[in-house]
Amino acid sequence: MDKYMSDVFRLDKRGLAWYVRFRSQSHSCRHGFVMKNSSMGSCKPTHKGIQHKASMTWKNNVLALLERSLKPVPQELNELDWKCELSTNSKKLAHHICAFANNRGGGVFAFGINDKDASFTDISKETIEEICQKLAQIAGNSLSISIGLEHDVQEYEGHTILFVYVPEQATKPVHMKGQLMEAFCRSAGHTTRMTENQIRAMMAQTQGLEFEKKPAMEHLTVDLVLKKLDYKALFEHLGETVPSTGVHTVQRLANYGLCRAESNGQWAITNMGAILFANSLPDFPNLYARRVIIRRYSGTNNLQMSFVQKESTRGYALEFEEMVKFIMMNLPAQEEIAVQRKQNSAYPEIAIRELLANALVHQDFNITGMQITVEIYTNRVVITNPGAPLNEITRLIDMPPQSRNEKLAQMLFLLRLCERRGSGIDRAMDAIEAMYLPAPRFEREDSYTRITLYPAKETGKMTKDERIKACYYHACLQHEKGEETNNQTVRTRFNLNTKQTSMASRIIGDTVEAGYIKPTEQTRPSKKFASYIPHYA
Predict the structure, then answer these.
(1) Dihedral sign for Cα atoms in the order 513, 519, 521, 527
(2) What is d(CA 141, CA 150) in angstroms, rounded to the nearest whole number?
(3) 317 and 276 in contact (C-beta within 8 Å)?
(4) Under 8 Å between Cβ of 459 and 467
(5) With DSSP H G I counted as helix, E B as strand and the rest as coil, what are the percentages for the chain, rounded to 5?
(6) Which residue in 225, 96, 215 sits closest to 164, CA to CA?
(7) Positive or negative CA dihedral for 465, 471, 475, 476?
(8) Checking CA distances to 399, which of 221, 230, 290, 429 falls within 20 to 30 Å?
(9) CA 328, 329, 334, 340: dihedral to nearest 10 degrees?
């Protein structure tokens, strides 16, 4: 790889690009390229702190990021976009750079990979120079701020890949020059135009105004705050006594971020205070649309209009237990099948509880016209919440949790309404395994996340894909416990007896072939005693 040059691109006072070449003696270039803001008369990055930190880390991690996007199922990520060649559409390239600049942690272009089928394409030194120069010009001239880019040429499985890194910017949203409402973001591995609400929310976050801190109702007296919020429920959940005076009570609410003092001596109830403890959500018009809707249909689709419906009308903390109870009461009865624990329902309550809490915590409050819904059909349960997941849907068990609403997540944890953050999906999947249910289906779209649960099904009646996914998630759970997957654990997962080792071996073989699991280094020649770990381990 030392035949490739690493170029440092700059702009002179006339805005023309020029570069200085450095020859690398290692397999990756030691120098990136930076674009300066020509009006500042300096070649330093616009946001030095972000870019300096990124320079030390992104090159070391980019091959692992590429591997994650290509295996087991090829898919572009929010942090990585494949490119087989340089597009002639400069405006579209500017949209991609803008989206990466607004993305948490920034993002990387990977040139040399066909974005249609994830196949590799040849990339020459001349093409590398052309791509770097073109992107540098766009990043410096087409957006609301001049963005410094970095690049590196590395080898992956014998193929030359050009990586171009766009750092996250400190001041967001980045948008097209002179067009505030022309801002872009990454969602489900695609670049999408941000809505007005998303733009305003990102501006508020940049200024330190998270959703939870924003006022839901302002200019209130102490008595009105205590009338609008069920403060007694808060202290009951926390196991604390209610303060003796109204003023002290409101001050305690403020300590938890549920309200805040105004300069005129009055009080404002925050969004977090209202969404969790409102006695009546309709009193807060901007939040009433965030109610939870639960429907039970009489058939397998929503075309049959015979259904039972419940809508939450109070804060989540006040109605969470009622919602879980309502769902459990309306689930179909458990089929006759041997299970490790007796269950009156076809689905484990732990899974329903954790997945509902997950939907509450991770919803995107900037998406309008969509509520959290729990739809109960005779053959499945579907939980939908607004907002694409921040982690990949195949890595929800092992990856550290990310939350759009960190304070809301922490508050639900303090209220003991959900388990410690990051363990909810694990607990749900563990409970699903204990009842031998098929693996849930996780769907990620631009504006929503959907999880579908299925009732028990004999292994022989499962589809090949259902068996592969169940085996993969089993391996993920085993790995999180510090244990490996083998024929015996797979038999236990699928409720197979000792005479069905060949079926367990076929399931394992199919899952290995699909790229979801891999043999451990200590694996023995005999498949019966072989052990496996998830593909990412």
Answers:
(1) negative
(2) 16
(3) yes
(4) yes
(5) 40, 20, 40
(6) 96
(7) positive
(8) 290
(9) 50
Residue with tokens 């989206």: 99
Q: Which two tokens stand for residue 300?
A: 């397998």
CA–CA dist 317, 274 (Å, integer): 10
Note the pLDDT tens digit of each residue in 236-292: 999 999 999 999 999 999 999 999 999 888 999 999 999 999 999 999 988 988 999
- What's the token pair of residue 513? 């072939």
CB-facing half-sphere around the CA of 217: CA atoms within 13 A: 23
- Among residues 25, 172, 31, the alpha carbon closest in space to that of 103 is found at 172
What pLDDT was estimated at residue 495? 94
Query: What letter does residue 333 receive in the DSSP assignment?
Result: B
For residues 368 and 373, what is the distance between their CA atoms, to the nearest angstrom? Answer: 14
The set of residues, in sequence order, having a beta carbon less than 8 Å from that of 207 and lying 6+ positions away, is none
Contact assessment for residue 491 and residue 389, using Cβ atoms and an 8 Å cutoff:
no
Closest CA to 381 of 304, 444, 323, 327: 327
127 residue type, one letter:
T
Does the bond joining 72 to the residue before it have cis omega, within 30 degrees of 0?
yes
Mean per-residue pLDDT, 483-488: 93
What the block records as the tokens of 327 is 């769902």
Angstrom CA distances, 154 to 5, 64, 66, 441, 495, stand at 12, 12, 11, 35, 46
Q: In whole angstroms, what is the distance from residue 396 CA to residue 387 CA?
A: 15
Selection from 462, 520, 465, 513 nearest residue 489 by Cα: 520
Is there a cis peptide before residue 519, judged by omega within 30 degrees of 0?
Answer: no
Contact 388, 187 (CB under 8 A): yes
Buried b (16+ CB within 10 A) or exposed e, 59-90: beebbebbebbbebeebbbbbbbbbbebeeee
3 state DSSP class of 159: strand
**pLDDT per residue over 323-351, tens digit each?**
999 999 999 876 554 555 455 689 999 99
Q: Which residue type does 29 have?
A: C
Q: Could you give the dihedral angle defined by the CA atoms of residues 137, 143, 148 and 151, in that order, rounded to the nearest 10 degrees?
A: -60
Instruction: Say how far apart CA 3 and CA 12 lie, in whole Å.
Output: 28
Contact 211, 274 (CB under 8 A): no
Query: Please, which pLDDT band fits residue 44 given cuts at 50, 70 and 90?
Result: very low
- What is the C-alpha separation between 105 and 110, in angstroms, rounded? 16
d(CA 491, CA 71): 26
Read off the pTM: 0.71
Partner residues linked to 294 by β-bridges: 310, 374
Residue 138 burial (C-beta neighbours within 10 Å; 0-12, 13-18, 19+): buried
> Among candidates 312, 311, 315, which has minimal Cα distance to 275?
315
